[in-house]
Structure formats: C-alpha cells, structure tokens
Design a protein that fits this description.
The protein contains two helices and five strands, in the order αβββαββ. By secondary structure, the chain is an alpha+beta fold. Strands 1-2-3-5-4 form a five-stranded antiparallel sheet, covered by helices on one side. The protein is globular and about 40 Å long. Adenosine monophosphate binds next to loops.
Length: about 110
C-alpha cells in the first residue's frame, strides 16, 4: 500500500468507491472518466507500479480472470470488448498502480495506437 496512491486509497475504502467485482487479490471499479458505456478498471490490491513490475504470473492470471468476469457481467461477451494496460507515461499511464481497462458497450476503433 502507498499513502499517496489514489488506487490504494480506493482499495482501502477511503472514497466509498463501489467495487463492481472483486477477488482475493484484485478489485474492479468504474473509471471516473469513462471512455465508453462500460469502462471498468481491474486493479491488484497490492501496490504494483505497472505491468513491467508484475512478476507473479498467478496474480496476472487472476487479474485477467477478473477482467473477463467484468466483461461477462456487463454482457459484453457477444458485442466485443477490449482489455488494455498502459505501461509508463510514454504509453499514457497516469496512475502508477497497475490496472487493466475493460472497455466496451460501443464500437471500438480498430487502431491500437
Ligand atoms: P491510465 O491513464 O492508463 O493510467 O488510467 C488511469 C485511469 O484512472 C484513467 O482512465 C482515469 O480516468 C482513472 N481514474 C483516476 N482517478 C480515478 C478515481 N478516483 N476513480 C476511478 N477512476 C479513476
């Protein structure tokens, strides 16, 4: 846990953020500035800065499984969805606590960059 990290504060319950899904080592909550009708962040409870610092493959699997669950719960399995992580500021990362964006509910651009 980091005292300064906004996602650690959310995980601690400081803001009363609703978790749309959770597992032993991860939580999922809605993005505050959604880029699509469904935009949920899947976040490890442990403070890990970014994907390049994730060494625990089982935690990686748990995060991906929770992202899948979020997408299924939102009914996105047929309509399509995207799971993205930004690693580092040059890739667009603004919150330095690892998270996967689960985005869907509209047609998504075919561009990845
Ligand atoms: P990234 O730019 O990939 O680091 O994504 C960070 C995401 O966190 C952005 O989409 C923000 O809108 C989102 N965000 C920042 N603060 C909060 C918050 N308090 N609650 C929910 N989402 C947040």
């Amino acid at each position: 846990m980091s005292d300064e990290c906004v996602f650690c504060k959310i995980i601690r319950g400081d803001f009363g953020t609703e978790f749309v899904a959770e597992s032993e080592r991860a939580v999922a909550f809605r993005d505050i500035a959604p880029a699509a009708p469904v935009h949920v962040l899947v976040v490890p409870r442990e403070h890990i800065e970014a994907l390049h610092q994730l060494e625990d493959a089982s935690l990686g699997g748990e995060l991906l499984a929770l992202a899948r669950q979020v997408a299924l719960d939102a009914g996105l399995d047929d309509s399509g969805f995207r799971v993205i992580t930004n690693n580092g500021s040059s890739a667009g990362q603004t919150v330095f606590h690892l998270h996967f964006h689960v985005i869907g509910g509209r047609t998504l651009s075919s561009s990845l960059a």
